[in-house]
Amino acid sequence: MGGGPAGMVLGLLLARAGARVVVLEKHTDFLRDFRGDTVHPSTLEVLHELGLLDAFLQRPHDRVDELRATFEGQSFPVADFTRLPSHCKFLVLMPQWEFLDFMCEEARRYPGFELWTDAEAIGLLQDNGRVSGVKVRRGRRAGQPQDIELHASLVVAADGRHSTLRDAAALPHISYGAPIDVLWMRIPKAPSDPDATAGHIAGGRFLVTLNRGDYWQCAFVIPKGGHAALQARGIEAFHEEVAQVAPFMRDRLAQALPDWNAVKLLEVTVDRLESWACKGMLCIGDAAHAMSPVGGVGINLAVQDAVAAANLLAASLAGSATHKQIDDLLPQLQRRREWPVRVTQAAQRMVQNRMLVPVLGGKVNARPGHVPWPLRLLSRWPMLRRLPARAVGLGVRPEHVKSPRA
Known about the structure:
406 residues, alpha+beta, globular, 3-stranded antiparallel sheet, 7-stranded mixed sheet
């Protein structure tokens, strides 16, 4: 398994059930800049069910009780998490390395868990048409690469949207593309700034600002393939683009973004495997279904996959199940999780096509007294804010921990 959120959660749950698990992390540690730092109430509920929530919330994090939208300078409430039917009625922003380190620390309490760092899966092992393990390159970053074979009753590909293992298995997928890309950046936060995590719409631009305490984690949405043209206009022109949609940041953009190295491109794609499994191998998370950044739900969908996979497989992997018995279980995960993924991706594509594309095309502009009708409704009727909060915070068919504890 890969060392991302899906692989780490599944590794913990399987080790907790008594199975032997090896999680592969291609870097030497988790200390690097991730884009997905949002932990939703659905994931916090899983931590509660494992008895880990209080310890998890001791890690550095920022709490979000509501989401807001700013339209041409006017702020509107959009989602209210405080009414969710869950133990945590808020969303957490936490550096992903903190999340991964916490899950690893808990998993290491069980004797069957191993984390291999500086270990990258580079291919699959096959035995009579069944995946029987992975080829692993260890020590590449330490300058002493060594290729070894790791045999396993089941290989779980949780290595992201550019999954090496998925490609090695030649699993066909459906690609929906995307009309947008996203530029990620950090901007220092000033005491006079607004506090809310929000989406800002102004002048044909869309910017998401995530409140990380002393800085803003920002996502600037651009048309698909528009990055090169933006770069060609120069970094100063980009500063002006950001300032037009978030004027309160204008005074610090030149220092925060001195050149394009401070701006990271995420090429957005939305796809889904036609089959999530083959004999001896299962794909979960982004390896099975790449999500749009809309709603920030990618990590949480991956965690839900991991919980469902553990519920389905933990007893068999911890016991004496045959390879055929394990293989016969694998299609059940897709039957369980594909519908929530389909619904979520359809909603994301609708937001991309019906909201973001018109905004970026300059078709959503302010007129005197005019505010888009969804914002008017959400502002006028507080109960309606529970609907987007539930869609984002809990999602479709949230999973609950049913896997055994040895």
